[in-house]
Specification:
Layout (H helix, E strand, L loop, with lengths): L2 E2 L11 E4 L23 E6 L3 E6 L13 E8 L11 E6 L3 E5 L6 E9 L5 E4 L2 E4 L3 E2 L6 E2 L10 E8 L2 E6 L13 E8 L11 E6 L3 E4 L7 E9 L5 E3 L3 E4 L19 E2 L4 E2 L4 H4 L12 H7 L15 E4 L15 E4 L5 E3 L37 H10 L13 H5 L23 E7 L6 E6 L5 E5 L11
Antiparallel strand pairs: 1-3, 2-9, 3-4, 4-7, 5-6, 5-8, 8-9, 8-10, 11-12, 13-14, 14-17, 15-16, 15-18, 18-19, 18-20, 21-22, 23-24, 24-25, 26-27, 27-28
Length: 476
């Protein structure tokens, strides 16, 4: 359908609006000043299709600018109401032109159209509003047009489940739409705390993507109710919201080590000398005191009474792990993580590649979860913090895993080798260890702005201010 529009007489009469935008004033130009706004600003025809519109207009006139030097702009907004042209409404601009085609429109939708003509002095004239409606899509079965531009259907969650205290897995059905292919629909997951229905907003959007039916939400709070909504958007911008789904994350796990490492000390002492041989002839009056080297895993290994699954100094029993999480031979020349066969914990090994895993990188202590941060979040340091590092390691799937975290104080203590220093660790497995403090996850009970850290130069512990930049070794 085409609309043929006749021009009003002379300079446009009541059909146009002229303005003087030259200099600092917006007053209309005065007659015979030699600086008049363009005239004969009229849209001639409008021919809409389902998703485009062809527009033509008359050649305007101006008192000082040649017709082929005038600038023509088309402004378009959704709806048939009057509007003021602006940068956001401009869809076309060119010099010496009398027609164009505007694409990307919605079918069966009303729009308002205006022509703006500007001369070399910056004076403009705007045509009257021309409303039009784009065509509908014909019914493939005949019988006229089918109303289109309907929102997506089959918008629903399949499952919403808490994987652990800070993670929720979400799956949903593949939606359908009358004009947009399922693979081109946009799926948005909105999340808020609580159990009641809510209105999705940009601040609550946690995931958005096309051609997918699942996501994993991380960094959530423990023992907290979350309400979720799925919003599916088609290419015309129409949306359908699912019903609200509520899930509660479980409480924090109580982490206990089923077995403990020994200290790594394999020597005994009398009042002035250290001995690898703890016999009474060396220890004299210090014999039979059950010194550290005379009991525990370290003693059993040195006396050939204990077999290991892997290897390691003294009583430590470690296995090398590659980038995909596979266990390697004890003599493997390269590895990325270390499995402690005694405690069952897996530890990252630092690199020298300059990445966030690099041995030289330090981070401030930061945790936004008040259930586990001791009452003080710490310091974000513009992203150079422990929480950001944990997110990075999990996103990168360090050694094939995405459940890395800061170790507790007792966990980090478990790999301290008190029989050596600089570094106080089995550096045949934990190479690139720095002689400095490494953060733990535990805040100090008295003085929550501090957290516990362990110095791997000598195994000492410190209640340190959370804003300090310390090393980090993640565990899972």
């Amino acid at each position: 359908m085409a609309f043929i529009l006749s021009a009003c007489g002379g300079g446009g009469g009541d059909s146009t609006t002229s303005s003087n935008n030259n200099g600092s004033t917006n007053n209309p130009a005065t007659p015979n000043s030699g600086n008049q706004a363009p005239t004969n600003v009229t849209i001639s025809s409008v021919s809409p299709t389902q998703n485009s519109v062809s527009v033509s207009w008359q050649t305007a006139n101006d008192d000082s600018t040649a017709s082929n030097q005038l600038t023509y702009q088309l402004h378009l907004v959704e709806g048939g109401v009057n509007f003021e042209p602006s940068a956001s409404s401009q869809k076309f601009s060119a010099v010496n032109s009398t027609s164009t085609v505007i694409t990307g429109l919605k079918a069966q939708t009303t729009y308002g159209l205006k022509l703006l003509v500007k001369d070399a002095q910056g004076l403009t004239t705007i045509s009257t509003l021309i409303p039009f409606t784009t065509q509908s899509i014909p019914n493939s079965g005949g019988g006229g047009s089918t109303p289109i531009n309907t929102p997506p259907s089959n918008v629903a969650f399949n499952s919403v489940s808490a994987v652990d205290y800070q993670t929720i897995d979400v799956t949903w059905k593949t939606a359908a739409d009358d004009t947009t292919a399922s693979t081109a629909l946009d799926y948005g997951v909105y999340v808020t705390e609580g159990t009641t229905d809510f209105v999705p907003s940009a601040a609550l959007l946690k995931f958005s993507a096309k051609n997918t039916t699942q996501t994993t939400l991380t960094n959530l709070k423990a023992q907290t109710n979350y309400a979720l909504k799925l919003v599916v958007t088609d290419k015309e911008g129409l949306q359908t919201l699912s019903t609200v789904s509520v899930v509660k994350t479980p409480n924090l796990p109580i982490i206990t080590l089923s077995k403990l490492n020994d200290t790594g000390v394999t020597t005994c002492a009398n009042n002035n000398t250290w001995f690898a041989d703890c016999s009474s002839s060396n220890l004299l009056s210090f014999a039979s005191l059950n010194q550290d080297a005379e009991v525990g895993r370290d003693y059993l290994v040195t006396t050939a009474q204990l077999n290991k699954m892997g290897a390691g100094m003294a009583g430590f029993d470690f296995s090398k792990i590659d980038n995909t999480g596979q266990k390697l031979a004890n003599n493997a020349p390269q590895w990325a993580c270390v499995l402690d066969n005694v405690t069952g914990l897996t530890w990252e090994v630092k690199t020298t590649d300059g990445s966030m895993f690099d041995k030289t990188k330090t981070y401030a202590w930061y945790n936004s979860d008040y259930l586990i941060n001791g009452g003080d979040v710490g310091h974000a340091k513009e992203g150079q913090n422990t929480s950001a590092y944990i997110d990075y390691a999990n996103t990168q799937k360090r050694c094939g895993y995405n459940d890395w975290r800061l170790p507790t104080k007792s966990e980090l203590d478990s790999i301290v080798h008190y029989g050596r220093f600089n570094p106080a660790i089995d550096n045949t497995y934990f190479y690139n260890t720095q002689n400095g403090f490494y953060w733990t996850a535990d805040s100090v009970a008295v003085g929550v702005t501090s957290a516990w850290a362990i110095n791997f130069s000598n195994g000492g512990e410190s209640a340190s201010y959370k804003g300090l930049m310390y090393y980090v070794r993640l565990v899972r």
